[in-house]
Amino acid sequence: MSDLSDLTTEAASRDAADPLAHLRDRFDLDPDVVYLDGNSLGALPRGVAERVAEVITKEWGRDLIRSWFGNGWWTAPERVGDKIAPIIGAAPGQVVVGDSTSVNLFKALVGAARLALPDDGPPPGGAEASTGGGASNARTELLVDDETFPTDGYIASSAAELTGLVLRRVPAAGLAAAIGPQTAVVLANQVDYRSGTLLDLAELARAARAAGAVVVADLCHSAGALPVGVDALGIELAVGCSYKYLNGGPGAPAYLYVRADLQSRFRQPLSGWHGHVEPFAMRTEFERAGGIVAGRVGTPEILSLVALDTALDAWAGVEIEAVRAKSIALTDFFLRCVDELVPAGAVACVTPVEGARRGSQIALACADAERVMAELTERGIIGDFRPPDLLRFGFAPLYLRYADALRAATVLAEVLG
Ligand SMILES: Cc1ncc(COP(=O)(O)O)c(C=O)c1O
Ligand SMILES: Nc1c(O)cccc1C(=O)C[C@H](N)C(=O)O
C-alpha cells in the first residue's frame, strides 16, 4: 500500500526521470487542467496558430491562387502523409491526407473489396493466399468487429451494400478466427475506442493473408500512441484520423494508407479530379493518377492541413517506442493511483490491466458515469463519458506527466468518496 504522499513522491521522481518530459513544452496547455481527452481531440501544439495565421494573411491574402503551386498547397496531402508515415511505420509514398476518416473508410473498404474479388486479379496475399483458400468465387463477406466505433460500422454497411458483400459482425477478439475463404475484406480497429483493448493485428494479418482476404485497419486510437508498423504487418490498407494523438486540431483531415505494391490496382470509388492523372487537362474521362495520389478526391482542406503539418513538428526526434513505453508506464501508474485512492468497488476497470494488451487509455465503469465525468470536468480533469457507464481517460504521452495521472485519480477519489 502507498499513501498519497508516497504517490506524490513517486510521481515527482518519475517525471524527473521521464525522457519525454521536455516534449510538454511543445504544447500550449492550460495549467489548471489535466487533459485526459487527447484520444478524442489532441492538445494544441505550439506554432500552429502562428503558422495558420501566416498562411491566411500571406499565402491566401497576398499570394492568392498562386499558392496552389507556389506555396506547395497542391502537394500538401502527400507531403503531410509522408510526415505521418514514420509514426505508423510506413515507408514514404503510401500515405495521403485528406477528407474525414469516414470518407477514407469508404474509399478503403470499397477499394479493398475490388482488390479481393476474383474479377480483379489474384488476391494480394499471392501464392500463400492461393494455397490457403485463394481467390474464389465464394468471397461474399465483409467482416467487422461488432463493437466498432459507430461510423466504421455504418460505412462498412454502405460499402457492403455497394459491392454486394454481406456484412458480418463478430467480436473483435474473434475476427482472426472468423476469417475464411468466404471473406473478402476485414475491417479492424487496432485499439477499441471504448475499452482501449489492443487487437493483435499481426495475428489478424496472418489469418487474412492465409485466406486471401484484404485487411483495412482503423488506426484512429493507435497512431501516435504505439508503434503500429503498418509495413511490417503487411496489411493492405489503413485509415486514421489526425485530431487525436497526432494533434492536428478539430476537423483535421484524416489519412489513407495504401501499401505500395497495391497502388496500381487500388480503385477507390470516389473518382474526383484531384485523383486524376492530369487534373488540369480537364478531360471528360477519368484516368486515375498513379501512386498514393489515387487516394485523393477533391480540393484539400488547406488551412487544416497546414495546422496538421505544423502540429506534426511536435514529433521531431521522437521515437514511437519511447512513446509506447511512457504510455504503458503512465497508464499503469494511473491504475495504481486509482486502486490506492478511489473507494473500493466504486469503479471497475474495463481496460486490460496488462499494459501490452491496451492502447493509451483507461476506461472505468462506474455508476452514474455521465454525472461523475461532468463533475471531474468541473474540477479541471477532462476525460469523457461513453455510454452506458464508462469514464474514459486518454493518456497522450507527449504532454502528460505522472503528476497529472495522480491528480486525476485524486480528484476522482474525491468525487466518488
Ligand atoms: C475508431 C474511429 N473511427 C472513426 C472516427 C471518426 O470518423 P470521422 O473523422 O469521420 O468523424 C473516430 C472518432 O471520431 C473513431 O474513434
Ligand atoms: N471526432 C469527434 C467529433 O467530431 C466530435 C466529438 C468527438 C469526436 C471523437 O473523436 C470521438 C472519438 N473518436 C471517440 O473515440 O469517442
TrEMBL record:
<feature type="binding site">
    <location>
        <position position="102"/>
    </location>
    <ligand>
        <name>pyridoxal 5'-phosphate</name>
    </ligand>
</feature>
<dbReference type="Pfam" id="PF22580">
    <property type="entry name" value="KYNU_C"/>
</dbReference>
<feature type="binding site">
    <location>
        <position position="273"/>
    </location>
    <ligand>
        <name>pyridoxal 5'-phosphate</name>
    </ligand>
</feature>
<dbReference type="GO" id="GO:0009435">
    <property type="term" value="P:NAD+ biosynthetic process"/>
</dbReference>
<comment type="pathway">
    <text>Amino-acid degradation; L-kynurenine degradation; L-alanine and anthranilate from L-kynurenine: step 1/1.</text>
</comment>
<feature type="binding site">
    <location>
        <position position="218"/>
    </location>
    <ligand>
        <name>pyridoxal 5'-phosphate</name>
    </ligand>
</feature>
<dbReference type="GO" id="GO:0030429">
    <property type="term" value="F:kynureninase activity"/>
</dbReference>
<dbReference type="InterPro" id="IPR015424">
    <property type="entry name" value="PyrdxlP-dep_Trfase"/>
</dbReference>
<dbReference type="InterPro" id="IPR010111">
    <property type="entry name" value="Kynureninase"/>
</dbReference>
<dbReference type="InterPro" id="IPR015421">
    <property type="entry name" value="PyrdxlP-dep_Trfase_major"/>
</dbReference>
<dbReference type="InterPro" id="IPR015422">
    <property type="entry name" value="PyrdxlP-dep_Trfase_small"/>
</dbReference>
<dbReference type="GO" id="GO:0005737">
    <property type="term" value="C:cytoplasm"/>
</dbReference>
<keyword id="KW-0378">Hydrolase</keyword>
<feature type="binding site">
    <location>
        <position position="221"/>
    </location>
    <ligand>
        <name>pyridoxal 5'-phosphate</name>
    </ligand>
</feature>
<protein>
    <recommendedName>
        <fullName>Kynureninase</fullName>
        <ecNumber>3.7.1.3</ecNumber>
    </recommendedName>
</protein>
<comment type="pathway">
    <text>Cofactor biosynthesis; NAD(+) biosynthesis; quinolinate from L-kynurenine: step 2/3.</text>
</comment>
<feature type="binding site">
    <location>
        <position position="243"/>
    </location>
    <ligand>
        <name>pyridoxal 5'-phosphate</name>
    </ligand>
</feature>
<comment type="similarity">
    <text>Belongs to the kynureninase family.</text>
</comment>
<feature type="region of interest" description="Disordered">
    <location>
        <begin position="117"/>
        <end position="136"/>
    </location>
</feature>
<dbReference type="GO" id="GO:0019805">
    <property type="term" value="P:quinolinate biosynthetic process"/>
</dbReference>
<keyword id="KW-0662">Pyridine nucleotide biosynthesis</keyword>
<dbReference type="GO" id="GO:0019441">
    <property type="term" value="P:L-tryptophan catabolic process to kynurenine"/>
</dbReference>
<comment type="subunit">
    <text>Homodimer.</text>
</comment>
<feature type="modified residue" description="N6-(pyridoxal phosphate)lysine">
    <location>
        <position position="244"/>
    </location>
</feature>
<feature type="binding site">
    <location>
        <position position="101"/>
    </location>
    <ligand>
        <name>pyridoxal 5'-phosphate</name>
    </ligand>
</feature>
<keyword id="KW-0663">Pyridoxal phosphate</keyword>
<dbReference type="GO" id="GO:0097053">
    <property type="term" value="P:L-kynurenine catabolic process"/>
</dbReference>
<dbReference type="GO" id="GO:0043420">
    <property type="term" value="P:anthranilate metabolic process"/>
</dbReference>
<comment type="function">
    <text>Catalyzes the cleavage of L-kynurenine (L-Kyn) and L-3-hydroxykynurenine (L-3OHKyn) into anthranilic acid (AA) and 3-hydroxyanthranilic acid (3-OHAA), respectively.</text>
</comment>
<feature type="binding site">
    <location>
        <begin position="149"/>
        <end position="152"/>
    </location>
    <ligand>
        <name>pyridoxal 5'-phosphate</name>
    </ligand>
</feature>
<dbReference type="GO" id="GO:0030170">
    <property type="term" value="F:pyridoxal phosphate binding"/>
</dbReference>
<feature type="binding site">
    <location>
        <position position="299"/>
    </location>
    <ligand>
        <name>pyridoxal 5'-phosphate</name>
    </ligand>
</feature>
